[in-house]
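[Q] Does anyone have a clean structure-token version of this?
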Amino acid sequence: MGIYLDPDTGRTISTHSMLKTFRRCPKQAEFKYIHRLKPKKLGSPLKRGTWIHLLLEVFSRALKDGAKHKDAVAAMWEAHQRLSKEFNALFDEEKDFYGDLPREIFRVMTAYLWHYSKHDWKVLDVEFVLEAELPDGSIFRAKVDLLVEDQFGLWIVDHKSHKTLPKLDYRILDAQSADYVWAALKNKIPVQGHIWNYIRWKEPSVPKMAYLGKANQRLSKAECDTDYPTYVAAVKQYQKEHGLKILPEYNAKAKYLKGLQYRFGEIQNSTFFRRDVLEKAPTMLNQVAREMYHTHTRMNEYPWDRPEMIERVPDRSCEFSCSYVDICTAQLWGGNIDPIIKRKYKVEDPMSYYYDEQEVTDGGRD
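[A] Here you go.
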């Protein structure tokens, strides 16, 4: 019996997220895929990632449907207003938990649009499902954020939002991108490789004034993690409202920040956005596919019907990579987990987001 059977066909389905979760901790996979538990409240990074992902989806879908860039941007901001309205309807406690997301995400996406304003790719598909048959007749399923075309060919794109941009080393070894490329090629989609579209969800900081209202007022020399549009807008505002004198060092700073804007083929030094392009050699694709199938087999032959045999893999990452620490701990100590489940979780098909445009995650799609 498979860990997940397609409700329409009865065939066993495996996804990258499912396999990764099983490799990480079988107990976590049990809660997520066997009991189908989902937290009622998303963590703050996840909420940010969900919101950003939805805006990118609306923007990309408009481009795919033939809209002009400005109209796609307008559609994205309409979606942002709708999400902001939904956010403002939350209880005050929830809004305090998440922070001022409407303002923060507006500024992040404004910076994103400027950063990539000189780069264009043709969007061919958005949020589409790839399926490839495995040797045992089961299905590997992946949901892809984008399929784009540039002067070098077709690329799979995956959006990822993080607190800080990750190093490239990890992505070189990453299995998810290789699995996606493998599935695309199995479907005769001749992709060149995979692009990670990284977005740092921290908004650019606004530079502050020092000695405001005094004769020697100037911009603070404290380190300011910002971008070109934010920096220039702040300087102009201070000049207008407080008579800030524009010093050569301010122009030099603005020139430097402007030089961080994305230009195809040039080194990317932005601390807020990065697109990592990875081509995958056939030998790597084959190796990752073999490993994926091996995990698929182990997972689906695992004794899920014997809860006492399901292993836990506790480590420090539990606090930020697992949503089930409370019930896992209570269960281990012999407590009754039913009240916790009723209060903090809901039961939902873990694969529902494959066909539900409203469900996305910070960690990306399967």
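[Q] Thanks! Anything notable?
[A] Residues 228 and 254 are 6 Å apart (CA to CA).
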